[in-house]
């Protein structure tokens, strides 16, 4: 940025002496002198027509008095020098505009690239978070299934063994169930049954 400004200032500084040198060369070179005379005369005629048109009068070209050769050379040389300065200034303005637009375009491309990179990172993070959440849910589901499997297996083992006593000491006391078969008791006959005659005598 600073280098471009210094270069622009240098070109503007050098343009003035270059224009003066062109002006001096135009006055000395015969071909340039003819060009300057023709340019100056055309400019003079155009200026006079514009002035008369602004005033509302018409002036024929034959009635316009041409400039002297010395005045025409001077005016033509000044026009060429000023044209050179104008061309340099226009080139500098166009160059600065192009450089600014190029920098803006590069900055825009850089910002677009950064945004695309950030968007890709965000997408990757979202995918990773979803994978982690899915893995966590699967792990929780697996743990619940394992816990339920252990509980069901324990219940089945206890039920098969009939060991309800293993539930002792818990807040809910379950009755002990004896699964062994019980033997029926039969009264044995009295070896000395009461005598009916004795009962009659006593009566």
UniProtKB/TrEMBL annotation:
It holds the Pfam family OPA3. The keyword Coiled coil applies. Keywords: Coiled coil. Residues 179-203 are annotated as: Disordered. Belongs to the OPA3 family. The keyword Hydrolase does not apply. One of its GO terms (cellular component) is mitochondrion. This is OPA3-domain-containing protein. InterPro entries: OPA3-like. GO terms for biological process: regulation of lipid metabolic process.
């Amino acid at each position: 940025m600073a280098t471009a400004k210094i270069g622009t200032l240098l070109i503007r500084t050098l343009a003035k002496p270059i224009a003066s040198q062109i002006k001096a060369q135009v006055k000395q070179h015969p071909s340039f002198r003819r060009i300057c005379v023709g340019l100056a005369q055309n400019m003079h005629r155009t200026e006079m027509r514009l002035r008369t048109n602004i005033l509302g009068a018409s002036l024929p070209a034959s009635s316009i008095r041409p400039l002297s050769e010395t005045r025409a050379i001077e005016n033509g040389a000044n026009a060429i020098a000023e044209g050179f300065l104008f061309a340099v200034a226009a080139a500098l303005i166009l160059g600065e505009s192009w450089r600014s637009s190029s920098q803006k375009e590069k900055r825009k491309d850089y910002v677009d690239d950064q945004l695309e990179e950030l968007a890709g990172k965000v997408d990757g993070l979202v995918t990773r978070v979803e994978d982690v959440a899915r893995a966590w849910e699967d792990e929780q589901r697996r743990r619940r299934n394992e816990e339920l499997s252990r509980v069901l297996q324990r219940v089945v083992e206890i039920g098969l063994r009939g060991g309800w006593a293993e539930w002792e000491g818990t807040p809910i006391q379950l009755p002990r169930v004896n699964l062994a078969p019980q033997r029926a008791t039969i009264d044995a006959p009295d070896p000395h049954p009461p005598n009916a005659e004795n009962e009659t005598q006593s009566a």
